[in-house]
Amino acid sequence: MRSQRVGRMRIPPRYAQLGADLRGCALRGDVSLIDGSRVRGAVTLRRTAVQPCCTIKDYFMKALLESLRSGDKDLELARAIDPARLPEHIAIIMDGNGRWAGRRFLPRVAGHKAGVGPVRVTAETCARLGIKVLTLYAFSVENWKRPRHEVETLWRLLRYYLNQELPTLQKNDIRLQVIGRQDALPPEVRRELDATIDATSSNRGMTLNLAINYGGRAEIVDAVNSILDMARLDGRIHTLKLDEDLIATSLYTASCPDPDLLIRTSGEMRISNFLLWQIAYAELYVTETLWPDFTRNDLLLAVLEYQKRERRYGGLSASKGSPARAALDEESLQPALHES
Questions:
Q1: Is the pTM of this model over 0.70?
Q2: Active site annotation includes 229
Q3: Which residues in the chain are classed under CATH 3.40.1180.10?
Q4: From 21, 30, 58, 143, active-site residue
Q5: Architecture of domain 64-308 in CATH?
């Protein structure tokens, strides 16, 4: 089945009914397309006085709901999620493979093998939810310190995942990207990565970032060095001034919004050199669940917890920032000021 279009937006085959329904809405005058711009498969809809209508995000939620059967324990959780308040970008530190294997008296590599399934489930669920970006911490710059046979097993598992999961990526309109220092990867791994990136490059659904040979400090160093290199080439090195925007646009993730939600499995309370710049205002969610045991249920619980939180970005909440509350605070301080 070929892709369909609404305005200039490309609708992947699995959402063929979406294209038909939206065209019908537009013809009835229920909705109008504001700009029709292509933003990873999303489009903005404006509600009119005729009647409220569906949005693209609602349909992606519908894709998840339709994949759940009646009686499925995840169905109630999925229905509780507000599609208007989804995180745009979810980042996950996939931790606990070694402990999972150790508790079963298995070698560490068994834990890594068991961790492949949750990657598939998490990516597919996020795509069906309507998440724009999912970033998974697969291999850090520090992981080279591990035993050689474990590192080689990780590369074999990555190649296996890329080969086996390409149909799933295509089915869900997922575009693969890699962040990290790819030059240091084994040649056969780079070839597989490049092939999968190329095969999914025209997909416009969710972006899946695999952080491989990645470190947050290394990323910032690489960003600054690239800025300096460009300034030297342009002859601007003596007048160069660094600012946050310039560094942000030079990071590996320059094309993506910053993470809204950072999930860490295995209960460890640390960031582990992951997306240090980008998670400045991310909501942190730590679960005791080890990564091989991480399920769709765990992911939905994390999203629901995220939706309970009030994101202030260094400011005040709506109630605390109101003029009435400010006047009340000032009034309560008057006795103390007089006493002093």
A1: yes
A2: no
A3: 64-308
A4: 143
A5: 3-Layer(aba) Sandwich (3.40)
